[in-house]
Amino acid sequence: MKLLELLGYFNYWVFAIILTVGLYAVIRKTNLIKKLIGLSIFQSAVFLMYITMDKVEGGTAPIIQTGVENQIFSNPLPQVLILTAIVVGVSTLALGLAIVVRINESYGTIEEREILDAD
Amino acid sequence: MIFVFALFLLTLLVITALAIVHTENLFVAVMLTSIFSLLMAANFFILDAADVALTEAAVGAGVTTVIFLSALALTGEREKPRVGGRNIALVTVGILALLIIYATFDKPRLGDPNAPVHQHVAPWYLEKTPEYMGFPNVVTAVLSSFRGYDTLGEVFVVFAACIGVLFILGVRPPRESLEPRDESSGLRHHLIPQVVGRLLVPFIVLFGLYVQFHGEYGPGGGFQAGAIIATGVILYALLEGEAEALRAVPRSVLLGMVIGGAMLFGSVGVVCMLMGGAFLDYSVLAADPVWGQQLGILIIEAGVGMAVCGALLSIFHAFAARESLS
Amino acid sequence: MIDIGLDILSWILLTLGGACVLIGGIGGLRLPNFYTRIHAASLTDTMATLLIFAGMMLQAGLSLPTLKLLAIMLFLLLTGPTATYALANAALLSGLKPDAETVTDNDKGHAG
Q: Residue A60, SS3?
């Protein structure tokens, strides 16, 4: 019983690990595309945390079926926030990649060190 | 039973994330990102977020991968290893992970019905959606009506990002000696993928339209539909070459979709004000408030779908056009 | 009676499908070079898809989900082998020889 209760936090642990793995890629890798990949992992971790919070025990997706009494629904609000955030995430990621492409055209490299040396 | 499956998927998710950061080949990293997104979508589905899972599968595993790959084609796929500083980064990140894990013990356990999140506005949304809107999907109702301002903002962020990409990549590359490569032919020499792909594209677009207009009754809506239709057109571009895809859906149409979609959303709000309601209060659009809500939601979902589809495709074409120059 | 029979049949199909996925996974890890590996992996695209979806359709009975499952199965049966073909073709075009003796880490690099 105690163990099962602890496993109820497993999603949050995965959230913490993925978040820090993404952060590691952002602070440690010098390749700009790798940094952006790290940033999108970081972002996915936040999505996972929000969606974890929406779960209600014994609930279903918040689509109300007629004629079924006493249904339990998961929380629709975090879902809405993340639904829009995913699409916004890909657009901003594309903006970042566009800047990286331009940097590569101007400096001939996407390694942070070499760009700093070139300046 | 589903709980064991969730544990399995989450463990795979962690392994994939570690592999993405570990590999030095960026191409492999991007492919793993696609797998990561698919696993994430499966997790979302287990956590009862069908709409989010649909979006993540279409956007994360489909569009993001293509955009990453087209950026990689312009930059190069090898990452140079970096020496030194590894331990400091690992220790910092490790301490942070332990702190976050320690902090999560204050959070309510997974699925706790008494968690604070479930006490505030969510029950009200669940209770009032059938009464105000008269359709079953609460996520669509919250997205497009109860939190319409939020969604309007997000659509304009997508719009702004798209314009930004077009500005950044619209300028000619600095090296002048570049001669345009002969028209990229896509997979024209690979007969089997081409035939199967041609067969699938109409069904993908049809499914996108279904998701768009069935969004009030099942998982779906403008964001998902826009992404799915965009993947269909991107598949066509990959099979037939980018020029052929631009002939099918020209740039002007794409820009019109982005601008028109965002404008449609905003103008519905203004029309609501002109008809005596508040901004984005659809109840005034028809004599019966429920019909008004349904009409308003149908129109703004169409606007969202157009804007998202146009933005993603414009971004894809901006990268792809760059490719054929260098 | 007939319900129990259908249930048993569907579970047999599901178990066989699961076994196919497992064999495909082991093959993908253990076989010596790229072409044999995708050969193993394509087992999950075809045989496992057929068996698992047949099992799930028997579980669903005559209803709308069965039709949806059928549509998904057709989609997977169309795309899976195509993807395998495209992968093998791309590998061949980029110069990876289908040679049974090449057992090197280099192959792994190409396959990855």
A: strand
Q: How many domains does chain C have?
A: 1
ipTM: 0.93
What structural domains does chain A harbor? 2-57+72-118 (1.10.287.3510)
Answer for the pair B326, B177: CB distance below 8 angstroms, yes or no.
Answer: no
Residue B172 CB burial class (10 angstroms; 0-12, 13-18, ≥19): exposed
Closest to B75 (Cα-Cα) out of C56, A31, C21: A31
* Cβ contact, residue pair B200, C85, below 8 Å: no
Identify the three-state secondary structure at position A31: strand
Interface test with A, best of B25, B31, B48 (most A CBs within 10 A): B48
Write out pLDDT tens, residues B163-222.
999 999 887 766 644 544 444 555 556 788 888 888 899 999 999 999 999 888 888 888
Helices (runs of H) and strands (runs of E) counted in chain C: 5, 0
In-domain check, residue B229: yes
Say yes or no for a CB contact (<8 Å) between B76 and A29.
no
Residue type, B28: V
A33 contacts B72? CB cut-off 8 A: yes
B288 domain-assigned: yes
Instruction: Report helix, strand or coil for B25.
Output: strand
